Automatic annotation (TrEMBL):
Belongs to the 'phage' integrase family. PROSITE patterns: CB, TYR_RECOMBINASE. The lineage of its organism: Bacteria, Bacillati, Actinomycetota, Actinomycetes, Geodermatophilales. Keywords: DNA integration, DNA recombination, DNA-binding. Residues 102-286 form the Tyr recombinase domain. Residues 1-81 form the Core-binding (CB) domain. Pfam families: Phage_int_SAM_3, Phage_integrase. One of its GO terms (biological process) is DNA recombination. This is Site-specific recombinase XerD. It comes from Blastococcus saxobsidens (strain DD2). SUPFAM superfamilies: DNA breaking-rejoining enzymes (SSF56349). It comes from the Bacteria.
Length: 343
């Protein structure tokens, strides 16, 4: 039965983060098993999976959710193929809805400062997110020992997420730690947060010293600050988008932005923020055009300053001096080497 196999598949997912495992379980319970739970694995047909995908979409599920539910179903069926339970995966090559990416919301420096000013004691949190590009979970898991004030660097080696009401500490999204530059303007406020703490203590906490939870902080601090600052349609994740925008405006390269944000590849950075680099490409074209013009001007100048050729002496033809003439000869009685070869 699919339900029994799904349980076995889920228990075998040891290489994923707790938040991912929790999401897999939710997708199975809410979207996959209600339809497929009582099916035998061999009874799952490709056409039926395509109909199921269309029905999920017709019932109002978001395209991204439909794709995620299909992926979970396909993953457990792939395991059944590898285990020899079924000959092929009937969920492969099923038409899926296209997901349209929402346009990122970018704040200006002035809007960031306005938002931070009205956030009160949490203003430095907004500045930290806006000028470093940290994910909220990475910022909430940042420990005192990972702040290097001398080199002005943050080491991002941990993240915290809320999974089913519980806080789970783990590695960042890309499964790799990274180093992020710390602007000097943030050093003083972060130093105050380090006062009286041990090296392994969390840098940013609630007033009572507990871990910051995104849902609580968003409701108690962020949304009121957005309204007071006169902004609209701004989410905490938009502050991360803003960090990318401000970095590009400061002439950061694609690779630099990728490393700062912790993206898996530069291609991923371009997928999300390609529009930010349009001005950079225009500036690149302008610089290349200027270099080409300078090279052309230098070439014209070299032609005009070239010394004139020497006037041949009386009785000499032009080009007759200065070494052997090669295969050519002006004496009709002497054949050239080429003519000798042909004769």
């Amino acid at each position: 039965m699919v339900s029994e196999w799904a349980e076995r598949w889920l228990s075998s997912q040891t290489g994923v983060k707790p938040s991912t495992l929790y999401r897999y379980g939710n997708l199975l319970r809410t979207h996959v098993l209600p339809t497929w739970g009582r099916y035998r694995l061999v009874d799952v047909m490709h056409a039926d999976v395509a109909v199921w995908v269309a029905e999920l979409l017709g019932q109002g599920s978001a395209p991204a959710t439909v794709r995620q539910a299909h992926r979970v179903f396909s993953l457990l069926l792939s395991l059944a193929v590898r285990d020899g339970r079924i000959p092929r995966n009937p969920a492969e090559r099923v038409p899926l809805p296209r997901v349209t990416r929402n346009e990122p919301r970018f704040l200006t420096h002035d809007e960031v400062e306005r938002l931070a000013d009205v956030a009160g004691e949490d203003g430095d949190i907004i500045r930290l997110l806006a000028y470093t590009g940290l994910r909220f979970g990475e910022m909430a898991a940042l420990r005192v020992r990972r702040v290097d004030f001398l080199r002005r660097r943050l080491t991002i080696a941990e993240a915290v997420t809320e999974v089913g009401g519980r806080l789970e500490f783990g590695i960042p999204n890309t499964h790799q730690q990274r180093t992020v530059p710390l602007p000097a303007t943030l050093a003083e406020s972060l130093a105050r947060r380090c006062e009286g703490k041990q090296s392994d203590d969390l840098l940013v906490t609630t007033a009572s010293g507990t871990v910051l939870r995104l849902r609580n902080w968003r409701r108690a601090v962020f949304h009121p600050a957005v309204r007071t600052a006169g902004l609209s349609d701004v989410t905490p994740h938009d502050i991360r988008h803003t960090a990318a925008s401000l970095a590009v405006a400061s002439d950061a390269t694609v690779k630099s932005v990728q490393r700062m944000l912790g993206h898996a590849s530069a291609a991923m950075t371009l997928d999300v923020y390609s529009g930010l680099f349009d001005d950079d490409l225009t500036a690149l074209a302008d610089r290349m055009d200027a270099a080409a013009r300078a090279a052309a001007d230098a070439r014209v100048g070299a032609v005009w300053t070239r010394p004139p050729a020497e006037t041949p002496a009386k009785g000499e033809r032009s080009g007759q001096r200065g070494g052997p003439r090669g295969d050519r000869t002006h004496n009709p009685r002497i054949k050239s080497p080429l003519l000798c070869q042909l004769s």
